[in-house]
Design goal:
By secondary structure, this protein is of the alpha+beta class. The chain has one helix and four strands.
Length: 58
């Protein structure tokens, strides 16, 4: 799943920290400024599948 987050630099840092505790994160794009909005940044997060997924064998 790909998640896009827009906000100030402090909001992005806080949100990334919280998301990392809940979801397994595969990769985080570089934090880039939004050109038309001052003090606003954008980042994309790609979540990875769970590492400890066990399947039931019937």
């Amino acid at each position: 799943m790909r998640i896009r987050i827009d906000g100030t630099y402090a909001e992005l840092a806080y949100t990334l920290n919280k998301i990392r505790t809940v979801l397994p994160v595969g990769s985080i794009s570089p934090i880039r400024p939004r050109l038309k909005r001052p003090y606003t940044w954008r980042v994309f997060i790609n979540t990875a599948p769970n590492r400890d997924v066990s399947r039931w064998i019937a």
